Please model this.
Amino acid sequence: MAQAWRCKGLRWSASGPELAWDGGRRSALTWGKRVAFGVAEGGVRTCVGARGHPCPVRAVVPGRSTGARCEECARLDRAHSVAADTIADDPRPYHVYLAWFGPGMTKVGITALERGSARLLEQGAVCFSWLGAGPLMAARRTEELLRAALRVPDRIPYGDKRAVRSVLPASAAERAAEVADLHARAAALPGWPESLDREPCQPVDHAGVFGLADLPSAVGEVSGLVAGGAVSGRLVAAAGPDLHVETGGGVVVVDTRLMAGWELVPVGEDSELTLPVREFRSQDAGVQDELF
Model:
């Protein structure tokens, strides 16, 4: 029987996207590389646990869940989460940023200073700029200031991000325009926390990092993994947790968060995509040692 691997999702390193596996192994992903894996017949998806600890009961979780956690582990994972506002006394400094995902889709957010731009890569931000840096609560107040005064959201749905990746403006200057405009409007607002050090607008573009140039429109997205199903195709782009894979039926988006919790096995060269795919309603967006 082929060796099975448990995927921990997509990670972004200085050299680009990598798939992480239990045990610390990583598989580098490059454009044009074949992506192929299958789910063993009779396999089930089990909870990935919380905060580095395995689920004590190895609970079975739904195939369509991007969190891949049971209810109890999900609660524990968010119990000490900055995103959930459960750590008000975190002493680390934080960045406040503006992130752009496509026309009309700019959000405000915060990330620990020590993480650099990793959070922006993980979210699939095509362009971003820092607004400032300071203590956690000052960063939170700045984030709320922009939401209240400029109606800048703090979340952009992944479906909206995927829909426009193949039809983004061609130049970096065009992609940075909304960030620059919003940065200037934000800088003019009164009420900024005094403890937050403001930063100038210096847009960073990730279109090249993600491989978005000439990206074909996706025909759909994998809605979930199932026992006996498989993915096979050529990697054409990766952004955030998403892989854009060219298959015989067109480009399909694979959200790697759906892979977590499954035991995956190698598949043959002649394998095809046999997982359930949710088709997009329009073309808006657009023995083997390792699996990849």
